[in-house]
Specification:
This protein is of the alpha/beta class. It folds into two domains: about 5-35 and about 260-350, Aspartate Aminotransferase, domain 1; about 40-260, Type I PLP-dependent aspartate aminotransferase-like (Major domain) (Aspartate Aminotransferase, domain 2, 3-Layer(aba) Sandwich). It is about 35% helix and about 15% strand. It is globular. It binds pyridoxal-5'-phosphate (PLP). Pyridoxal-5'-phosphate binds near residues 151, 183 and 215. Pyridoxal-5'-phosphate binds near residues 85 and 215. Belongs to the class-II pyridoxal-phosphate-dependent aminotransferase family. Histidinol-phosphate aminotransferase subfamily.
């Protein structure tokens, strides 16, 4: 605390990101990164722009990246907004569409950045309790006062709503914006982008951080009808004209045009998730039916927190959330087959030893 801090700085409750250890021997399965590298074309495109041209500002309107995204998503460029990671897109969306005196709704177990933004902007919220099976309570997400946000698939559960359920939430909130955060959609859930034409209150956000193995370049985007996108542009241009740097622009454009490569890596992650889930179940663990690149796991025979701490000591980083509803669970990102085999061995050894 400093006497120089504004009230906003004093009252902020910042998000605590997963650890980013530097040691290369660590098997890092705690922040849902893609275990495979970006495509060679993507890396080449970024290297090409690292030249004297960097003395210039990047394009503030990111028109050509918007065209690539529009083409991929089957919308027009005016329906696309690009941000410095989808976190930034979400932060702008909270400012553009939610009000300080109108409570928004999001699930009680969800991406922990939502309450952070709400707190920062003074937006009240109602954390909607999940169903007993950890699915989002669709009925309870209707009739919000100020708006709705949820990830699909949800994090950290990995459970996805079907498209008709997302549509029910949209219909149940006709006068408020519903943000569907599709950070993990490419790993097996249904995207709501096809509903954008029909629902003026829908904003879908996506990121290149997970599906395109580009968490390091910070590019995310939103799809919505033109007036929602204009609202986001108004906030962005009141904050920073050049949110996307030239290197990220080149990488994102190439990655989104390099579909075959990324489709293959997505398949590999999904296949690993399937066998790893089954192997954990064979150990007696309870594993939710994830459509994302991570699994939400309830260990049996050992405490979740103990498992998290013990694995960390042994060089395996997974995620544990010290919150009442999920204290019995850990979240494990899907790595390569080799990484998951080593983790499985370590867990089996721990269960078999007298620890
Ligand atoms: C549900 C969800 N939404 C959004 C993000 C933000 O991703 P990024 O800012 O890397 O695009 C994350 C990151 O972990 C996430 O889990």
């Amino acid at each position: 605390m400093s006497k120089f801090w504004s009230r906003t700085a004093r009252e902020a409750k910042p998000y605590i990101p997963g650890e980013q250890p530097n040691e290369s021997q660590i098997i890092k399965l705690n922040t849902n990164e893609n275990p495979y590298p970006p495509s060679p074309n993507t890396l080449e495109a970024m290297k090409e722009v690292v030249n004297e041209g960097l003395r210039k500002y990047p394009t503030p309107t990111v028109d050509s990246l918007k065209r690539v995204i529009a083409n991929r998503e089957g919308v027009n460029s005016e329906q696309v907004f690009v941000g410095n990671g989808s976190d930034e897109v979400l932060a702008f969306a909270f400012q553009a569409f939610f009000e300080a005196n109108e409570a928004i709704k999001f699930p009680s177990v969800t991406y922990s950045f939502y309450p952070v933004y709400a707190n920062l902007y003074g937006i009240p919220y109602q954390a909607v309790t999940l169903n007993d099976d950890f699915t989002i309570d669709v009925e309870a997400m209707k009739q919000s006062i100020g708006g709705v946000i949820f990830p699909n698939p949800n994090a950290p559960t990995g459970l996805a709503l079907r498209l008709y359920q997302v549509e029910e939430i949209l219909q149940g909130n006709p006068n408020n914006v519903v943000i569907v955060d599709e950070a993990y959609v490419e790993f097996g859930a249904e995207s709501a982008v096809e509903l954008v034409e029909q629902y003026p209150n829908l904003l879908v956000t996506k990121t290149l951080s997970k599906s395109h193995a580009l968490a390091g370049i910070r590019v995310g985007y939103a799809i919505g009808q033109e007036d929602l996108i204009e609202g986001l542009e108004r906030i962005k241009n009141s904050f920073n004209s050049y949110t996307i740097n030239s290197v990220s622009l080149a990488g994102a454009e190439t990655a989104l045009s390099d579909d075959a490569y990324y489709r293959e890596t997505l398949e590999r992650v999904i296949n690993t998730r399937v066998w790893f889930k089954q192997s954990l179940e064979e150990l007696g663990f309870e594993v939710l039916d994830s459509k994302a690149n991570f699994l939400f796991v309830k260990p049996t025979g050992v405490e979740a927190e103990w498992l998290y701490l013990t694995l960390k000591e042994r060089g395996f980083y997974i995620r544990y959330f010290d919150k009442p509803e999920v204290r019995g669970y850990v979240r494990i990102s899907i790595g390569t087959d080799e990484e998951m085999e080593r983790l499985l061995n370590e867990i089996s050894n721990l269960l078999n030893s007298d620890c």
